Protein 1
Amino acid sequence: MPTVHEIENALYGWAPRELAADWDNVGLLVGSGASKVSRVLIALDVTEWVADEAIAQGAELIVAHHPLMNCRWHEVQSVVDDNAQGRTITKLLRNGVSAICMHTNLDAADGGVNDILAQKLGLEGLSMLNEEKIGRVGTLKCEKRLEQFLSDVIQLLGCRGLRYRDAGKTVHRVAVGGGACAEYISNALAMGCDTFVTADLKYHEFLDANGINLIDAGHFETENPVCGAIHDFLAERFPQLAFILSTSHNKSVIEYYTET
Ligand SMILES: [Zn+2]
């Protein structure tokens, strides 16, 4: 049986550590590199639900995208059980579950978050949206009306809905940025894109958008396709292991709509 470290190293072969942003925290974040692994749970986030799911499934390792701690939004100063982060870390350690997180290095990697998102949406001839290699630009085989493209995005990413700004342009040259990539709207415009698919857009970012269709398709929905890619990558290299795709990692944000 491979060790946690062997699996971490294999993942670095795909998404090298050097590709990660300097504020980021990637790799083995919780647990023991020497532990033997027979079952792996793959998830976008290591939430308490995901930790429970790993324990219930008998997984010794979680491979996830977002860092559990010590990055820009999860700075750990203590591990105590009066907050969700401390409880999650404690639960993992008590139950011998390790966690590997591959974040901005996997955003940037060939075949990582953004390549997978672009391919899912049918984009071809991909190039980089920015120097950080986070985000891609490509073209659709055929130009589409925006309404058609919106419905394709919903179907292809499994969204329940989305938010958008109509710039009055048909969709052909499209930028994608999985997760929160509003800061790259100007890059998308500079690269001649008519449409940008990303997530976590603020109200004023929609208001200020000029000359580009802006689509907020959801943070989870734009990044979750990478879980399937992690699965395929690891299953090919470690055929002796059992892999489980999380069914609880989408519980953090639930959409509620009423019919009008
Ligand atoms: Zn993200």
Protein 2
Amino acid sequence: MKFQWLCLGLALIILTGCGNSPVGQSSEGGSNTAQPQARVLLIGLDGTRSAGIQQANTPNLDALIAEGFVDYDAITNDVSLSGPGWASMLSGVWCDKHGVVDNDLTWANSRFDEYPHVLFYAEQQRPQINSASVSHWAPINSEIACADERGGECVLDHVMSVATDIEVRDEVVRLLRDEDPHFLFMQFDDIDHAGHGDLTDGGTDIGGFCPHPGGDPSGGNQGGVCSALDYNANYISTIELTDGYVGEIMAALKARPNYAEENWLVLSSPDHGGAGTVKNQHGFPTAQERRTFFISSGQAARPFPDAQVKIVDVAATALHHLGITIDPAWGLDGRPVAVVDAPDYVDDATPSCFNPAVFLPDIGTL
Ligand SMILES: [Zn+2]
């Protein structure tokens, strides 16, 4: 409320877009006076294809999109695996810098000493920021948030790895109800498991990241290897179940006593797609496996028609909204997108890390 009255007063004087600019937040320079209430909720949806959320009934993601922006043609690394995907989303640099190109071995060679979780910088400059990471896939916390390269020191204030998506939901709801987070990351994993056929592990579920009942329409970036026979209803139903968790989380967010003043930016993206090469696998550099989506929602969200959103842009966008000035010396590849006062976008090429000599796709656990 104070913010609105201040804007009204300023508008009389400077006749410029005060309403578009959170108080004290600047995209360039002087970030330490940033609006302390600016907050970020980052919802990570492992293995969720753009075509999946377009086909499934997802009223809660739809509500986020209605209050913001979506790019259904965002893009991840050319090694379309979870390790490099989450590493790029959370460090803001591509695989050639952070060094993670698989889900297992290359954590040991990662460079999170040089390219840490982005909240390393936020916590360094403004330690009062309360940050949390709640993840079903444990390496996000054990390898990125609390990297060996930093002696296992955790960047975030609250790091919790859990065994189920329900526990992710419950912990995030608890944090929003009982704590005071400024940056809250969560990762849901069951959609990816459904794609691999891991979820109902009776040996008969062959999975598939195939959301089209009649098979993928031919042509364009909706293609891939999914015929009508490959349609995986379980993939759709798991997306819809997870969308319900998003709804419960958003209800908890909006029930916060000071929600109206907290200026939450809600971001949501997956780490990779699927069904480009083998219907229940991913990891190859095909369009279907690299294609992701990016949602930016809330009063600070803005349209972004300029370019394809890249997975490395997520971190820069979060930092920008928190009012952290991005130092060029950090070497971030991403840039703020679809958020108020974002600087002009530079559409850099993406590097390649795909080496067929050593590459192994993610085939799930069956
Ligand atoms: Zn996977």
